[in-house]
TrEMBL record, chain A:
Belongs to the nitrile hydratase subunit alpha family. Its EC number is 4.2.1.84. InterPro entries: CN_Hdrase_a/SCN_Hdrase_g_sf, CN_Hdrtase_a/SCN_Hdrlase_g, CN_Hdrtase_asu/SCN_Hdrlase_gsu, Nitrile_hydratase_asu. This is nitrile hydratase. Fe(3+) binds at C111, C114, S115, C116. The gene is nthA. It catalyses: an aliphatic primary amide = an aliphatic nitrile + H2O.
Automatic annotation (TrEMBL), chain B:
The keyword Nucleotide-binding does not apply. This is Nitrile hydratase subunit beta. It is an enzyme of class 4 (lyase). It comes from Rhizobium deserti. It catalyses: an aliphatic primary amide = an aliphatic nitrile + H2O. NHase catalyzes the hydration of various nitrile compounds to the corresponding amides. Keywords: Lyase. It comes from the Bacteria.
Length: 207, 219
């Protein structure tokens, strides 16, 4: 009758969100009544991915690779073990591969079939990574996509797109920015964005 | 199956819309949907491959209009009903009507850290040697099963080069349909964009997939 909701925040998908809110709540209620789920476990899962498992994990891996050639070699040979040595393993990080950007080649990761993503090092994927626009075009027009992220690569630069069709999860190791050799591992890690580890950005000294 | 999920090369979805400082969740229900999906996965009643197939079976118009957590939730409802944990009527009402099937385990809060840290590795030892080796030229098979597969349409009947042997893994095309794990060797196969997209393709672009051995034929 009244449109008082009109003034509420973030309601551009109002109907779908309110419908899903009810749907998911009903699902949780009935499964809890049946003793099949523990709502506190859901809280613990959410808390883990909000506070413990995110792109800082991957940035640590990248900075370590930049500062420790032996680690970089290990990462190339056995990324799962090298990454696990820093404490990052488990769900959607069971079978890791690290792909290194070079002056000749830029790497970009996608999952055209669903939303495969290296959770153990990057956390939960952003909405755009799971949405049709990115999944459809990454394999046919990656330069167009990179331009939408504000990244213009030289025309001569090769682009390699990795479609995550199996259970291997890919982490892009960006090129280390010039003139950053004197920085500590921590300072370097702070430069590395999530998008640079998917391949939709590069790492620059002054961001 | 040639479902709405198989998006590589489709057109008309517009620009990618990255958000600045994107939050992990855009609504409270998304948090619960994530936790419910992982909690119910812990029942041990279905595999990740079966859950992927349940998602790609969502009717195309619904799939393409849904956010990803909605896709997960719709598929979860199907899996819960199929495996005897909750009927659609129960979910609609939010009230229990039947005794559920007995899960292998119920995920409690104190188990979460261990379960997430363990993950679900799907590499499996097999007795055979890999049929292909790095450098081999191969052609992907041309098939259009109504069942689950991880060979995308854009990469069918295409010639490429085996770049790496990645190990032996559970075969999703069987595992999604309760036909067993049937592990096979998996290879990274790289294609020139001109082979995939033909005229007008970006000459600097190569695309790779990870392909199970039975997806490939020697050229």
């Amino acid at each position: 009758m009244h449109d008082h909701d009109h003034h509420d925040h973030d309601h551009h998908h109002d109907n779908r969100y309110s419908d899903m809110q009810a749907r998911v709540k009903a699902l949780e209620m009935v499964l809890t009544e049946k003793g099949l789920i523990d709502p506190a476990a859901i809280d613990a899962i959410v808390e883990t991915y909000e506070t413990k498992i995110g792109p800082r994990n991957g940035a640590h891996v990248v900075a370590k690779a930049w500062t420790d050639p032996d680690f970089a070699d290990w990462l190339k040979r056995d990324a799962t073990a090298a990454i696990a040595s820093l404490g990052y393993a488990g769900r959607q990080g069971e079978h890791m591969r690290a792909v290194f950007n070079t002056p000749e080649t830029h790497n970009l990761v996608v999952c055209t079939l669903c939303s495969c993503y290296p959770w153990a090092v990057l956390g939960l994927p952003p909405v755009w990574y799971k949405a049709p626009a990115y999944r459809s075009r990454a394999v046919i027009d990656p330069r167009g996509i990179l331009a939408e992220f504000g990244l213009q690569l030289a025309d001569t630069k090769k682009i390699r797109v990795w479609d995550s069709t199996a259970e291997l999860r890919y982490l892009v190791i960006p090129e280390q920015p010039a003139d950053s050799d004197g920085l500590t591992e921590e300072a370097l890690a702070a430069l590395v964005s999530r998008d640079a580890m998917i391949g939709t950005a590069i790492v620059e000294l002054s961001r | 199956m040639n479902g709405p999920h198989d998006l590589g090369g489709q057109m008309g979805f517009g620009l990618v819309a990255p958000e600045t400082d994107e939050p992990y969740f855009h609504a409270e229900w998304e948090k619960r949907a994530l936790g419910l999906t992982l909690s119910c996965g812990a029942f041990g009643a279905w595999t990740i491959d079966e859950s992927r197939h349940a998602r790609e079976n969502i009717p195309p118009a619904d799939y393409l209009a849904a956010s990803y957590y909605e896709i997960w939730t719709r598929a979860l409802e199907v899996l819960l009903e199929r495996h005897g944990f909750a009927t659609r009527e129960e979910v609609d009402a939010g009230v229990m009507q039947i005794e559920p099937a007995v899960p292998k385990r119920v995920l409690k809060a104190d188990m979460v850290a261990g379960v997430l840290a363990k993950g679900g590795p799907c590499d499996r030892s097999i007795g055979t040697e890999p049929f292909f080796k790095p450098g081999d030229r191969v052609r992907t098979r041309n098939f259009n099963p109504e069942t689950h597969t991880r060979l995308p349409r854009y990469a069918r009947a295409k010639s490429g080069i085996v770049e790496a042997v990645q190990g032996s893994f559970v075969f999703p095309d069987d595992n999604a349909h309760s036909k067993g794990e049937s592990p096979q060797w998996v290879y990274t196969v790289v294609f020139d964009a001109t082979e995939i997209w033909g005229e007008g393709a970006d000459p600097t672009l190569t695309v790779s997939i990870d392909a199970w051995e039975s997806y490939l034929e020697r050229v």
